[in-house]
Amino acid sequence: MQFDLDGFEAFVAVVDCGGVGRAAEHLHKAQSAVSHQVRKLEEQLGITLFNRDGYRVQLTAAGEAVLTEGRRLLSQAELVGSVARQLTQGWEPKLL
Asked: Does 90 have pLDDT greater than 80?
């Protein structure tokens, strides 16, 4: 299964910011782009993350289950990026 981190970033931002509009502002992206990224992630995962029936989007049970792991995935990706930045600045890892 393949998915991109941008989709998870958008998904988590929608949850944390309380809606697509605020998430778009937070991510400095168009609202339509954030919605598209979340829908694309849903397609990639084969599940519905949000109930869109009401005024505001609400997490589905599947969305709740994926949220914790999505946060963990983004945190891990940030760690990999940090190590890569250190390596480009001359840091040398120790081999055990």
From this structure: no
